[in-house]
Amino acid sequence: MKEKDIKTIVKEKYGQIALQSEPAKGSCCGPVSDCCGVDYTTFSENYENQQGYNKDADLGLGCGIPTDFAGLQTGQHVLDLGSGAGNDCFVARAMVGESGQVTGLDFSEEMLTKARSNAQKLGFTNVEFVAGDIEEMPLENNQFDVVISNCVLNLVPNKDKAFAEIIRVLKPGGHFCVSDVVLKGELPDKLKKDAEMYAGCVSGAMQMEDYLETIPKAGFKNVQVHKQRSIEVPADILKMYLNEEEMQDFQNKKTGLFSITVSGEK
What we know:
By secondary structure, this protein is of the alpha/beta class. It is 31% helix and 23% strand.
């Protein structure tokens, strides 16, 4: 698929998710849901014990908890890429306090509307949500102390551009911490090309080795993987895309999807 087509698909899917009613919330990249026409596995982790957690902002779209390893401190300015309904922003806000600032960036108008509504209900004046593309952020150079993101960069077609933009907007000495989906082993072409699986964080995933090489190439140092876990894809989903032999390889871990949380310094 062309990069423009991928972005259109992702924007449409996540716009649909933002508009779902409370009982139906979830996504291809989170709790089981039929928003994309099929049921997907749970990628997300439980946020309920996180300080600043707000249930209305948690659509289950993540694959980790980047704030656990981001080393956020009082007074810092934090940027959350692909901020959705504001879940990670509100957790980050609890960590940086009243003197800090949190900015969420998203290109789905529906998500931005939901996030702004959540922030207004909570009465936060130091959390803002900005419309923009991660590959071309409408943000100034050297603006943020920390950049976080949760299960979003894998949906960005050009990872080189994404990490180049992250290092651009970070202050000297700043750092990023992101949770993301990566791949080990080759994914069959028919699964890679499927649009719904792309929006479901699967075929948009890079090989772990390539993903980790992209980060220092952008200029980051002290790159560290803090956490890694296998993501289980249900057999009934795999059957839609894989033959018997391919399924066996996938289930025997010759091929697999993993969630990683990684950081790097500018």
